[in-house]
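User: These chains co-purify. Model them together.
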Amino acid sequence: MVSELTSVAALWWAVIFSGLYHGINPGMGWPLAVSAALMERNHKALPKALVMLAVGHFLAMVGILLPFSLMIVLVERETEIRIGAGLLVIAMGVYLVINRKHPKFLARVHPARLALWSFLAAMAHGAGLMLVPIYLGICAVGADETGHLAAQALMGNNVITAFSVAAIHTLAMTVGGGVIAVTIYFWLGLKFISRTWFNLDLVWALSLILVGAFGIYSAYFGH
Amino acid sequence: MNLRPDPTFHASAKLAMEAPVENFAFTVMLSPDGKQSDGIAVVDLRPGSKTYGEIVHKVIVPNKGDEFHHFGWNACSSSLSPLSGHAFLERRYLIVPGIRSSRIYVIDVKEPLKAKIHKTIEPEELFSKTGYSRPHTIHCGPEGIYVSCLGGGGPDGTDGPPGIFIMDCETFEIIGRYEMDRGKQDKHYDFWWNLPQDYMVSSEWGLPPQFENGIVPEDLLSNKYGHSIHFWDLRARKNIQTMDFGDNYQMALEIRPAHDPTKSYGFCGVVVDTTNLQGAIFTWWRDDDGVWQSKKTITIDPVPADADDLPELLKGFGAVPPLVTDIDLSLDDKYLYVACWGLGEMHQYDVSDPMNPVLAGKVELGGIVKDTKHPNGKDFAFGPQMVEISRDGKRVYWTNSLYSTWDDQFYPNDEGGQMVMADVGENGGLTLNKDFYIDFPKGLRAHQIRLEGGDCSTDSFCYPSV
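Assistant: Joint model of the two components:
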């Protein structure tokens, strides 16, 4: 029982950690919040922009997690689904390792449409996929604990979990990006925009592979 | 790909001004008669260097008859917007088009003293992928590298309108045409933009038959050169407004938007007003209703001259027109430099109030009638033409050739390529630097200058200057 709780706690920490990881990456958009406040000469534009970025990111997470929450109603197929999801995440990671060009269609989005941009950016980089194995892990532990619930109730639980995972992840992302944006806007200055930027493309792709592998591993040996 | 953003990318124009000064200049060398190959001269600008102010390396291309004119970087400060997603590009390659051959060279200048050709795009590829010809202005932006072309298809470039095409900023593959709705735009020259405000402005010179073999006086006198500028929804690729300055404002060329992206104004230089031979600068801006407006804010008068002192083309007018052929705006949006190629003058205007420019400095050098010598006693062929300002705004460089066939018409007795530099005073004012004078190799003329690490007509900034 204790080990299971630790495991659930660890998975939720993974949700928070991945949110912070997405959030502090300038490529996920916090410099746009700094820019918005400076362009409008109004610091209130900064939280507004962060909220728009968060909305887009949240929708991208939910958009990826929900289909899985509906699928795992098929309890008897749980292991196969989790392995399939793990393979999908690994495939996305491998694709991003091989194709190192950045997605150019993002440049077509109007600079004021931050929510749309954030949604597309998260989709293009497989940000939602990174959460899938973690999410499935949480659902599996939940299912064990609650025993054999009716399919409908199980699905309801999973949908709630999907929204919770997306919300907590997005909150962590917004806090991560927001802290940097506010620090740069009020104290450090624009010079630090380029200084905080690291090319994480490869690290990102490898993280996807790692998380996918973890998903497959836990499907076999864990929950 | 870098692991960190290129150190020459700056979030704002202000940060670019505070950055280390330029170490090298890259200047176009062109053979006016196609007898030699064109090239890029690498000029040493390292303070204290033994070879300061000298050409220390040349990249000579294998073909002849390209006629280099304008060129630009593969990447600039515009990469620091997360929207475009290419923060880790290197500012490493110069995209150098041949305006006569339609061939494009990509030159690797990572090590300026060993600069070399990285890739060549043959004209046929440009024609087949875009239907455009005679590539000209280069800007790096959200979707990659944007290149304006002066010609459409067909041998004389009049089969279809000219326009802008986009190149991949990593592979330098030509992707295709930019425009989705060009509206009234049927000629092309320069373009630039404001990235956060998502607008682009483009201008008009004339169609290839109007410039390739020299200026066509009948076309000029019947006001057939370009006199409109076009405002675009940059990302929707749509012409949203065409602004006609008036038929007599012939050749609306350089577009210089304010560098600070919070500002919604800029300038455009007009070569000649055919009613009075004046040169003119228009200030354009967006009003509170979102409509673009413009107003003529600078006029430069022609100077009466004896017909004997004038080339064939101008004898009938008895005056030298200023011929405003290039303008450039300092990164703090304070000084606008205006090249009066006919008069032989470089003007510096304080445009702190863009609606009321004030002449702050002036240098006389060359010119059709005056033919002023450089302070070092040497000749300056033609007049001040392509002008480039250092990022910190303290040094202004310029060269002397406009365009091979036009040089020969306006200055039939001149020949040579020179690059000079003027120092900017603390409170404005412009003084030619006696010790900076580069005479180009015999038979080659000089045109656009690019400064290592970016200059005042390349970089687009995505964050305000605060």
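Residues 13-451 of chain B form a domain with the Methylamine Dehydrogenase; Chain H fold (CATH 2.130.10.10).
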